[in-house]
Amino acid sequence: MKKRCVFLSVLLVCICILASCGNESKLIGEWNCYAAEKNGERYNASDVGESLEMEFIDSESLKQIANGKVENFEYSVSDNVITLTQDGQETKYKYEIREVSDEKLVLYYQRKKRLLYFKKAS
User: Fold this and answer.
1) Please, what sign has the CA dihedral across residues 10, 16, 17, 18?
2) In 10 A of CB 41, how many CB atoms?
3) Is 73 within 8 Å of 93 (Cβ atoms)?
4) Which of 42, 59, 116, 117 is an S-S bond match for 37, by CB 3.0 to 4.6 Å?
5) What CATH number was assigned to the domain covering residues 2-120?
6) pTM of the predicted structure, to 2 decimals
7) Where are the alpha helices (DSSP H) in the chain?
């Protein structure tokens, strides 16, 4: 019985590690924000004059273009939260991954308490 519990524990840890790696690899690529939602109200980003593009270059590097301003960051993913750092310092940007697939990304921007909806750039 004890061996079975140890085996199941190790198996569970392996599954969790593999699941988190899967989300990270799906992030790679260029994403365009098309909508946002705050307090249950959803709006198109273009309707309010906002633009946000995120390009996850590899498993550590990110380029973010917000309203024409280009910034380069390093990022890490832990417990489905993307944390951006710049020059080794943690920034104000933290995004919780709510959904990620090959074509769709939904992030919760913790600082502004809003959901951001992205589609993969073609």
Assistant:
1) positive
2) 8
3) yes
4) 42
5) 2.40.128.280
6) 0.76
7) 2-27
The residue type found at 25 is: S
Closest C-alpha among 75, 53, 74 to residue 64: 53
CB of 86 closer than 8 Å to CB of 76: no
Residue 9 has which token pair?
């524990």
d(CA 101, CA 115): 16
Per-residue confidence in pLDDT tens, the chain, 122 aa:
554 433 434 333 333 333 444 456 899 999 999 999 999 999 998 887 789 999 999 999 999 999 999 999 999 999 999 999 998 899 989 999 999 999 999 999 998 999 999 999 97
Q: Are 90 and 83 in contact (CB under 8 A)?
A: yes
Burial 44-82 (b: 16+ CB within 10 A, else e): ebeeeeeebebbbeeeeebebeeeeeeeebebebeebeb
Sorted by where each begins, the domain ranges of the chain are 2-120
